[in-house]
């Protein structure tokens, strides 16, 4: 800690990060141990965070992330979208296919930015806000591959007909971006994805990740 930082705020943010990293919540004792502070300090932190709906405690006393973080999270999407648009535009124009940035939202993949090519006679309509299961479609499968540590050479995922009949997709995960699980991809009307598309999608995903760091 430095003179310019707040120890209490730092501890509160650490509480949120610890709770975000667990599915079953944490007790006051567990938080006290992980933070290296006494239980009284943890009680005060939780009470303050509860007032802002950022933390909730169940009947067993375990603390979990509260619904208040959703309103904060919704404001992140426009910033992420803005950072990704240049790379998506370049990708869409280069490949001649609809490019998209997709983020994990629970068990679903959520398209938060979509760019369609300007020079093609036809392309797949893929709208911002479109959702689909993470285990279907290139975008979601690329996210799952990164989550499971399965991203390997060549580093991108190809699918056909999983979300729309006759459509193929290619996607690569965003790597090295703290707090964001996502992928960059394209979707096109074709029986297969041309060989050069996968590497180009991978490059675009790296560009977006660099813009978000």
TrEMBL record:
Record has Thylakoid as a keyword: no
Pfam assignment, any one: IclR_C
GO MF annotation terms: DNA binding; DNA-binding transcription factor activity
Annotated ranges, domain HTH iclR-type: 6-67
Record InterPro entries: ArsR-like_HTH (IPR011991), GAF-like_dom_sf (IPR029016), HTH_MetabolicPath_Reg (IPR050707), Tscrpt_reg_IclR_C (IPR014757), Tscrpt_reg_IclR_N (IPR005471), WH-like_DNA-bd_sf (IPR036388), WH_DNA-bd_sf (IPR036390)
Ubl conjugation as UniProt keyword: no
Domain IclR-ED residue range list: 68-213
An example Gene Ontology biological process: negative regulation of DNA-templated transcription
SMART domains: HTH_ICLR
Keyword list, A-Z: DNA-binding, Transcription, Transcription regulation
Top-level lineage group: Bacteria
PANTHER family according to UniProt: HELIX-TURN-HELIX TRANSCRIPTIONAL REGULATOR, ICLR FAMILY, HTH-TYPE TRANSCRIPTIONAL REPRESSOR ALLR
Name of the protein described by the UniProt record: Helix-turn-helix domain-containing protein
């Amino acid at each position: 800690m430095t003179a310019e930082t707040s120890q209490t705020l730092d501890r509160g943010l650490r509480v949120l990060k610890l709770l975000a990293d667990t599915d079953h919540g944490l007790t006051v004792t567990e938080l006290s141990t992980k933070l290296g502070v006494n239980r009284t300090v943890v009680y005060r932190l939780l009470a303050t965070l509860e007032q802002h709906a950022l933390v909730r405690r169940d009947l067993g006393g375990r603390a979990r992330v509260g619904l208040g973080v959703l309103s904060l999270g919704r404001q992140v999407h426009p910033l992420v979208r803005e950072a990704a648009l240049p790379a998506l535009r370049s990708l869409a124009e280069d490949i001649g296919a609809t490019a998209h940035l997709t983020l994990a939202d629970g068990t679903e993949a959520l398209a938060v930015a979509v760019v369609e090519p300007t020079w093609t006679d036809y392309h797949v309509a893929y709208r911002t806000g479109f959702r689909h299961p993470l285990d279907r479609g290139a975008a979601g499968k690329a996210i799952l591959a990164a989550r499971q540590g399965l991203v390997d050479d060549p580093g991108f995922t190809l699918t056909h007909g999983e979300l729309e009949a006759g459509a193929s997709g290619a996607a690569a995960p965003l790597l090295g971006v703290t707090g964001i699980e996502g992928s960059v991809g394209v979707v096109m009307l074709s029986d297969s994805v041309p060989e050069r598309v996968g590497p180009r999608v991978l490059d675009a995903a790296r560009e977006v990740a660099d813009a978000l760091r």
